[in-house]
Write a structure and sequence with these properties.
This protein is mostly helical and about 450 residues long. The chain has helices spanning about 5-35, 40-65, 70-90, 95-120, 130-155, 160-165, 165-180, 190-210, 220-235, 245, 250-280, 285-335, 340-365, 370-420; strands at about 430-435, 440-445. The radius of gyration is 21 Å and the shape is globular.
Length: about 450
Amino acid sequence: MNPRLTLASSVAGAAVVALDGTVLTVAQPTLQRDLDASFGQVQWTSTGYLIAVASLLVFAGRLGDRYGHQRVFGIGMLGFGAASAGVGLAPDAGWVIALRIAQGVSGALLQPATLGMLRAAYPPDRLRLPIALRTSAIGLAAAAGPVAGGALVAGPGWRAVFLVNVVPALAFGVLALAVPGPRRAHRSPLDLPGALLLAVTLACLVHALVALPEPGWTAVAGPAAGAAFVRHERRTARPLVPEDIARSPAVGSALGILVAASAALSGTLFAGTFVLQDTLGLDPVQSALRSLPLALLMVLAAPCCAVLLRRAGARRTTVAAMAVLALGILVLSRASATPALCGGFALIGAGFGTVMVAATHVVVRQAPVASAGVAGGLQQTAMNVGPTLGVAAATTLMALGGAGAALLTLAAVAVAGATAGLALPGRRGVTIVGLPDEAGPSRVTAPR
């Protein structure tokens, strides 16, 4: 698959998943009424998907490293399209939950592959723009999702929300499997015990966060499985997460920044909804219009970040962007008039869009080609755990001190992420890890 077709597939895969997540929120109330479902069942249409995708992302990335990212992407897209069609035809809530879990498994297959394909198709010094375009597509999908979802629910009904993904998912899935992909010169071994321990760890973590303030047994099982995973990875000869990724300060810092940024964004959007509608008395349409600058600036910031990375380097770009994100949250915590609200959302969108491109670029670029899928899985895991953590924190803080206290704390989370950005590489140089053959990795220094 040539680089342009690879980029188109990566953008399509990321956009399909992002659109599915945003339109579902709009469709849930109608789905509940139409299927006579309980609130708990409706919640599991989201929770089941989230647990499935978050727990399998890293292992799915390793499958891409071993069998080819293009092949795994194609299987994931076909599965996602088929599960979407199933949800659209589901007779009851039980079937919807089961098929949403199947969607999560398919989403876990395709999401790391969207980054793994880019890492394999583009040299390290040309990754900025493809990652930026992928991020812009996610922003556009997130912005269009509520509008498209509302129109579909009001017109054909909630089932159309899921059917809209079927054709593009199946088309790109067939294309990925039909076009010959690159041969795998290096077959990475599969660490099945490590994959199982990590899956249990992440599944328990996500479930505990979603179930707050009553997380139950998963709050204990998650840390125990996590400790067992770390112990296993240190002892095994073929770990799930390769040593050059696990011990990279830049990758660790970038992943922490992605968790902090996505937690701050999602928690702010959750708390901000209550501020706009309950405190300020705005209806949903008025609230959506005031938050529109967030999506617009996120889309615009992504390609601009590619230029900033080249001129200023990852460290300065990320630290500045996290500071802008924190400032936007602070403005929003004090705002009541429309200009201030729009300004706060614009700052949040500009900061988050820039951070997402910069930190993702570091994670993907620092990884060797043979481990690009694992790097993509780690990036996607951070982007799934962060929002869950942010919403859980916002919910708890709002119950204790109101939306204002929640927003101030989330701004502090963004500042902490800016501090973590100091460990990222600067403009002058960065170590690139390559794997030209099976003899072993080679390291060269490339300009930022």
